[in-house]
Specification:
This protein is an alpha/beta fold. 39% of the residues lie in helices and 13% in strands. The chain has 13 helices and eleven strands. Strand 4, helix 2 and strand 5 form a beta-alpha-beta unit.
């Protein structure tokens, strides 16, 4: 396709805008012994994190196609209880966001745990409504997150969606906060290749993003996109690595899991890490928190990987594109419209 051809040109470096320094970006590297990645800014990023989306709180505009194991209105443990359990299990990277609506409870759990701040990796994201409002609103939200989490800096802060005509201003505001020491690494979320190009080609952008959080699993394995961000030195964090549990009974996943005496979740987690992506499972159940993190004591072979790599369908990619087009303006005054939405992005 034309999109694939263009992406391949970009992968070769012929058409990609580079940063002002002209230095070719470093590729994130996995440090197996420490179970972490080295980001392009030299900082360490844990390989596994605990996701806090729909933990104790379900946002009103949560996407039905990206729902978790808990449905709207369901009663369950609080975010404070869940995060406390996750910290007890051993998770040290907490993936938070303004949209998740539970950062104050996450902060309370951190305080309860007694875990030293220097041993935690805290990340958050600014939501579309705030991105739309502009730089001052973005900066105010970061300060609110710092207060809710009761910390004086964030290890990583991301622009949650590339809101048309607004996301670059938001990123530039985050650069200011990084310069002040309030944020250590800057990142993106849900950025397509074309969104990234638009961002880094803007003269106001002087700090290369270190991270892009997108959906990655065997059922949405966008190989051109993953290769592009790797070549650009941007570490990919995977959300929905476990497909919200909806793929656990898929016969191919079950076959690989049974072969190794592991669970479907563990197989999907290992697959994610093997692709060079940060793995961020989420559960409100302590036993599953433990299970999800137990992914370093086995290996999948080439036959297993070939089986799992082939599970992405054209229908899944079409669903992804539909969700992307809907969400970039979600919860803004342009919600429900495609105003400013890019007509073509790299789906592969």
């Amino acid at each position: 396709s034309a999109a694939r051809s263009m992406a391949q040109d970009q992968l070769s470096g012929r058409s990609l805008a580079t940063m002002a320094s002209g230095a070719f970006p470093s590729v994130p590297s996995f440090n197996g012994n420490e179970q972490s990645f080295t980001l392009n800014d030299g900082t360490q990023h844990p390989a596994i994190g605990f996701g806090t989306y729909k933990v104790g709180f379900i946002p009103a505009s949560a996407s039905a196609s990206a729902s978790g194991e808990e449905d709207a209105g369901a009663q369950g443990p609080t975010a404070r209880e869940c995060v406390t359990a996750a910290l007890e299990v051993g998770y040290r990277f907490l993936d938070c966001a303004q949209f998740y609506g539970n950062e104050a409870e996450v902060g309370a759990a951190i305080a309860d745990s007694g875990v030293d701040r220097k041993n935690l990796y805290l990340a958050s994201k600014v939501w579309t409504s705030t991105i739309y409002e502009g730089a001052d609103a973005v900066k105010a939200q970061v300060l609110k997150t710092l207060a809710d989490l009761d910390c004086d800096y964030l290890d990583l802060y991301c622009v949650h969606w590339p809101v048309p005509s607004k996301h670059i201003e938001a990123y530039v505001a985050l650069q200011d906060l990084k310069a002040q020491g309030l944020i250590r690494s800057l990142g993106l979320s849900n950025y397509a290749v074309e969104d990234f190009q638009e961002l880094v080609s803007d003269p106001r952008v002087s700090v290369r993003p270190s991270v892009n959080q997108i959906e990655v699993n065997p059922f949405l394995y966008r190989q051109v996109t993953l290769a592009f961000f790797k070549q650009q030195g941007v570490l990919v964090q995977s959300y929905r690595a476990l497909r919200d549990g909806k793929a656990f009974n898929h016969p191919d996943v079950q076959s690989v899991a049974q072969k190794h005496g592991k669970t479907a979740a563990q197989v999907l987690g290992w697959w994610c890490l093997d692709k060079g992506c940060v793995y961020i499972p989420k559960s409100v159940h302590r036993s599953r928190m433990e299970e999800n993190a137990s992914v370093f004591d086995f290996s999948l072979d080439e036959r297993d990987l070939a089986c799992l790599d082939g599970l992405t369908t054209m229908e899944n990619k079409a669903t992804f594109l539909e969700l992307y087009r809907k969400c970039v303006n979600r919860d803004t005054p342009l919600d429900g419209t495609f105003q400013g939405v890019k007509p073509h992005i790299t789906v592969d």
